[in-house]
């Protein structure tokens, strides 16, 4: 459901390293033949503000970062300050199948089932569980810090739009302000982020807000054909939960690596987070090795 | 005196935009467009329509800059309106890259396009064969949509348009008071302008919708210009070639050069090949002339010879041509008053 723009939110620490690692990794993939199959390409665009803001921490991670000129700001009445830069776009409807294919090539098995507990998947021979359950992680283990950030998007046909445009309203909050993100086929219009709202139904009011505010932002959208509309739940959390945990429950003991709560910047940080999770996995392996041959679990 | 009857010869971007400017500036005139070709069969239809000016050696730079500025402002307003998609006008960002440092670091148009700046080291890493570059945002006019949009506006203004091959401007003198010659390469025969010559350009129009930036080699020979539905890959500059047939060897060469700039183009689909002959000249011929045969006079305004830069300056030259038409109208009214005495 996400638009796939690799761009961090304005303030995120310690995500900085994960975001840089993700961007650099993807940049390296750009020139390879797989890039199209992955759904990866460069895209430039605008971040718009109603007052001057400090440069973001990632200004040197992305390409060609600069502030907007007065002539450029004429395009966006109501906004008095902004940035221009070149970012990456990773379309999940291509990326996820591509990842799946690569995993299958490496012998990874996929099971389509609802997991009710960590114990359930920690049986025979499973050494480590990696928990990437996103917004519903609380069903496996209560986490009051994890809250949905409901988003709704309209997908349109507007291939004349070649830039992303992201507006910022310090009062309404992150992703709660109109944005336009072109993909390889459709352009995504969005701009709601409703904290605590679990509804995955499309809201007519949100449709109106998104459509009108995006058309006001970019008049060229007025004749765009609406193709699809959908909503999704950003797995919001004050910080990403990326850590090990040893779970003990009666006779059961198992290692869990949590990697969830990426909010609206999962794509932006995914590779860096995955590498961090892999490093945690590595440390588990080293400990096991140091501890000698595997002890049978009682 | 009856409203002057103006005939515009030519229906490419120059003919149609000039006709439109005349209807806007002199609403009492009747304007008719005559051309042997209309969109999608004009030279303009082959062009990518990028607003990156071509430099005419014989025209003062400040004039070229004024033409470009007027064109850019005009299209900028359309791109930011509800008409943008119908008119085929959109903003696009990208890079102009050089294998050798260019003679002039700042082209005359650098402060007309948006956000012009040198590329950073990190950006240049994407182009290992190039050592210098410029990043900016400009506009693109997709054809046929733009020509069709001009035609629609002309029809709304009451302009008649006829498919007709004009071999001699004098053929028109009994029906029209003023002729505006926007015949492009056709002027070579129509008014026997030996200074006008074709520069053949072959291009590929491909489906590669993930390419969102333009990339242009500073030598002007290799370029990637994403339009609304297709990406134009170019090109060639073959002086004095009149051939409109696509050359397969050239197709492969263009494709290879463009893939070298943008490797993901290897996955491009549905490759279509087109050829256009740029109506090239030392300078754009933008001037009045009064043809005479015995005592009969025929005022003509010439507006042709835009070569590789037609889209970039079309509105500016159209406005100047309309102004010259005004001079023709004044001269006609002056002489008809004298005739009444």
Automatic annotation (TrEMBL), chain A:
Gene3D superfamilies the UniProt entry points to: D-Amino Acid Oxidase, subunit A, domain 2, NAD(P)-binding Rossmann-like Domain
GO terms under biological process: D-alanine catabolic process; D-serine catabolic process; L-proline catabolic process
Q: Which domain of life is it from?
A: Eukaryota
Its cofactor is:
FAD
Which coarse location class applies to the principal site listed for this UniProt protein?
Answer: cytoplasm
Query: Per UniProt, where does D-dopa bind?
Result: 168, 179, 234, 264
Decide whether keyword Electron transport is in the record.
no
Query: Flavoprotein: is it a keyword of this entry?
Result: yes
Q: Which positions bind FAD?
A: 115, 133, 263-268
Q: What is its EC number?
A: 1.4.3.3
Which molecular function GO terms apply here? D-amino-acid oxidase activity; FAD binding
Q: Which residues form the FAD dependent oxidoreductase domain?
A: 64-280
What's the family?
Belongs to the DAMOX/DASOX family.
Q: What is this protein called?
A: D-amino-acid oxidase
Q: Which organism is it from?
A: Syrrhaptes paradoxus
Q: Which gene encodes it?
A: Dao
UniProtKB/TrEMBL annotation, chain B:
- Reactions accelerated catalytically: D-glutamate + O2 + H2O = 2-oxoglutarate + H2O2 + NH4(+); D-aspartate + O2 + H2O = oxaloacetate + H2O2 + NH4(+)
Cellular component terms per the entry's GO annotation:
cytosol; peroxisomal matrix
Q: Enzyme group, top EC level?
A: oxidoreductase
Q: Where along the chain is FAD bound? A: 43-44, 166
Extract the Gene3D superfamilies matched here: D-Amino Acid Oxidase, subunit A, domain 2, NAD(P)-binding Rossmann-like Domain
InterPro entries in UniProt: D-amino_acid_oxidase_CS (IPR006181), DAO (IPR023209), FAD-dep_OxRdtase (IPR006076)
**Cofactor(s) listed in the protein's UniProt record:** FAD
Q: Which GO terms describe its molecular function?
A: D-aspartate oxidase activity; FAD binding
Residue ranges of every copy of the FAD dependent oxidoreductase domain listed in the record: 5-324
Task: State if Acetylation is listed as a keyword.
Answer: no
Identify the stretch annotated as signal peptide in this record.
1-19
**Enzyme Commission identifier(s):** 1.4.3.1
Cell compartment(s), UniProt: Cytoplasm, Cytosol; Peroxisome matrix
Q: Which positions bind D-dopa?
A: 223, 278
The UniProt entry's GO biological process terms, in alphabetical order, are: D-amino acid catabolic process; L-aspartate catabolic process
Alphabetic keyword roster = Cytoplasm, FAD, Flavoprotein, Oxidoreductase, Peroxisome, Signal
Q: What does this protein do?
A: Selectively catalyzes the oxidative deamination of acidic amino acids. Suppresses the level of D-aspartate in the brain, an amino acid that can act as an agonist for glutamate receptors. Protects the organism from the toxicity of D-amino acids. May also function in the intestine.
Protein family per UniProt: Belongs to the DAMOX/DASOX family.
- Its name, as the record gives it, is D-aspartate oxidase
The organism encoding this protein is: Syrrhaptes paradoxus
**What phylogenetic lineage does the species belong to?**
Eukaryota, Metazoa, Chordata, Craniata, Vertebrata
Gene expressing this chain: Ddo
